[in-house]
Amino acid sequence: MIDVFFQYDFLRNALIAGVLIGLIAPMLGVFLVVKRMSLVADALSHITLTGIALHLLLANFFAIFSLYDPIYMGMVFAVIGSLFINQLRTVYGHFKELAIPIILSAGVGLAVIFISLADGFNTDLYSYLFGSVAAVGSNDLMTIIIIAVIVLVLLFVFYKEWFFLSFDEEQAAISGLKGKWLELLFSILVALVIAASIRIVGILLVSALMTLPVASAMQWAKSFKQMFVYAAIFGQISVLSGIFLGFHLDLAPGGVIVVFAVIILLLSLLKNKIVKASLNRNVQNR
Length: 286
Known about the structure:
Layout: H1 9-34, H2 40-59, H3 70-92, H4 99-117, H5 123-130, H6 138-167, H7 169-174, H8 179-201, H9 206-217, H10 224-248, H11 253-285
Helix pairs in contact: 1-6, 1-8, 1-9, 1-10, 2-3, 2-4, 2-8, 2-9, 3-4, 3-8, 5-8, 6-8, 9-10, 9-11, 10-11
């Protein structure tokens, strides 16, 4: 069952890409959840769809666009969307959360228009929406590897700064931390990871990979650093299970990945409930 993934290039690509995405997406998700910005992933995934839909539309009129992968235009739109979110959070000040639905709504609206002009859905667009094991080519894998390396290096270099900004932006600013460009850099990383993850998880489900493993990790971790470890572990279990079962059962891997992430979350919540009940019994017995 596992051997078949090493016999074909596209399956091997999907497996390696899945391992990398399952690692970096939940790790960035830890910061998003702590900053109470988990819906940013939703907004950026939908603005990525806008870029992909525009590329597919333009490919109908200009042959040159057929030579390039639509995911690259999706990445450009995701980065632009992250910049707009950052700017809108500054503009609205005390109502920073407004930036997310604004970008999300704009992304969905434009995507629907482009899809309509392109004569509706096609097989390629369907795979972007829900993920596909067969869709990960060698160029996609190389892109994901580069993004993963960049993310891991920057997480190592700026861990303390992003940790500080996640818990107290105002105190970080008072302390002299150059938070604006660090926030901008983080937003761009999130945008790139979301766009890269779409091949495996799909546009409609990618935000779940950045938040559900983190939600599960919060039930186990006793420190901020432990959250990274548990989130990465749960992300790996979800992604690898989704890829294997998705391929063998002929299902969209994105859906299976999310279902596994939900199951892990439910088991984590159940574990916490059992532990609390046990502690209460011990207290009462004393």
